[in-house]
Q: What sequence folds into this?
């Protein structure tokens, strides 16, 4: 309760789930599961009609000679959308940092993401507990 007003448990749950999706799955999840190793041999930028940032689709040739695609999306969970052709990139799965032309790059803020995810979990927990208390009061 804030003042004389009660916070809607559904709104808290919705906010918490939205933050978990956006920062947990879309940012941290995508960064952790990305795996890239090779040299950028082509890139194609696709601007977004309704957002300030678009996507960049890279073609990356690995050490085995195979060309693979990597799509750098509009969130900070993606690798940069501005790597020039010839860039050597190595990103291991379950790591947030990556190597770019032999230099280690850590441009992903774990502290910020952890803080947002903590707020998200707090909203979900608060929403569940408020819903439970509201249900008990109605019975």
A:
């Amino acid at each position: 309760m804030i003042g004389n007003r009660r916070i809607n448990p559904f709104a808290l749950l919705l906010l918490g789930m939205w933050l978990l999706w956006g920062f947990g799955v879309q940012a941290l999840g995508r960064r952790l599961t990305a795996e890239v190793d090779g040299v950028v041999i082509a890139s194609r930028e696709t601007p977004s009609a309704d957002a300030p940032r678009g996507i960049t689709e890279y073609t990356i040739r690995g050490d085995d000679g195979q060309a693979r695609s990597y799509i750098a999306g509009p969130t900070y969970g993606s690798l940069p959308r501005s790597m020039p052709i010839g860039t050597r990139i190595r990103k291991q799965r379950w790591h947030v940092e990556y190597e770019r032309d032999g230099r280690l790059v850590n441009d992903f803020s774990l502290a910020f993401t952890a803080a947002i995810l903590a707020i998200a979990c707090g909203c979900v927990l608060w929403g569940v507990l408020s819903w439970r208390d509201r249900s008990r009061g109605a019975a």
